[in-house]
């Protein structure tokens, strides 16, 4: 039996009002698109993992729109920072479930444009990274020390949203070019090729193995449902 908060139709046009939530690299942000174009963004103060629901409401209010106007929710599912990925997925699940609208998960690798022939690096804390690219095979998790050793032996262009510790580990191996990875980047990827799935089926793509179970759909966000 379909749960009451699950939309009966997962189709979405991308032309309506779509909101994206992301905190894969620790700093929370939200973005809005309308007519297939990103029209507004809002970032958290500090890391802001706990601010995503508030940011979503504030951004909608700034555009004189309400949660009930939303066509779909987009969320960055990682790989990325463990707590950041987990918190964004939990909030997005709750929002989509409460509003009975489609949820569109987007990989951080897709948001970074990882389909190009270069290495992608995503930081996760002081020691771990997630890499992928034709020179390195299937995406996988490595330590900063392992990554620095590989790059010293086989230098390649690097793209990523790196942390301070990752920059430090790589500075002798390769020039690291950081690019922005936020809600707007995930939203653009979703508008280009994203597909909605059941909210219950959306899970975080952690860099490291999760020590706790993936977040389930949050209780209804009643503040969003009727606004």
Offer a quick outline of the entry.
Helix content is 29%, strand content 26%. It has 227 residues and is an alpha/beta fold. The strands form two sheets. A five-stranded mixed β-sheet has the order 3-2-1-4-5, sandwiched between helices. A five-stranded mixed β-sheet has the order 8-7-6-9-10.
Write the layout of secondary structure elements.
Layout: E1 17-22, E2 29-34, E3 37-43, H1 52-62, E4 70-78, H2 82-99, E5 103-107, H3 108-111, E6 119-124, E7 128-133, E8 137-143, H4 144-153, E9 158-161, H5 164-170, E10 177-178, H6 183-193, H7 222-225
Parallel strand pairs: 1-4, 4-5, 6-9, 9-10
Antiparallel strand pairs: 1-2, 2-3, 6-7, 7-8
Helix pairs in contact: 4-5
Task: Please tell me about this protein's structure.
The protein has 7 helices and 10 strands. The chain is of the alpha/beta class and 227 residues long. It folds into 2 domains: 138 residues, 2-Layer Sandwich (Nucleotidyltransferase, domain 5); 65 residues, 2-Layer Sandwich (Nucleotidyltransferase, domain 5), CATH 3.30.420. A 5-stranded mixed β-sheet has the order 3-2-1-4-5, sandwiched between helices. It is elongated.
